[in-house]
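Morning, I've got a small favour to ask if you have a moment. I owe you a coffee for this, so here goes:

…
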Amino acid sequence: MATKSKAVDNGKITEGRNVHYVAYNNRHLASIITGSEEPETEVVDLAVFTNMRNVNGDKSGGVQFHWGIKHDEETKAPGTWHWIER
């Protein structure tokens, strides 16, 4: 029988919670959970805040929206989300 993760057991997956999204360059970016159709699966939709340099080297920020992002507290693989480290 599969066990539920700590994140689900504590009922923490709710809209508006702050988490980290792992970008494909392994940067952990500030994000907000914007939705989760099935919280028990730990798959969420995120608004991801970027803070990077553009092609001219100037600092540039923005917001990206990502849907269907899987939770990964163990390896924190690129393209996943996890709770912010304390």
Q: What stands out?
A: The beta strands are 18-22, 28-35, 44-53, 59-69, 81-82. The chain is about 5% helix and 40% strand. Residues 17-82 form one domain.
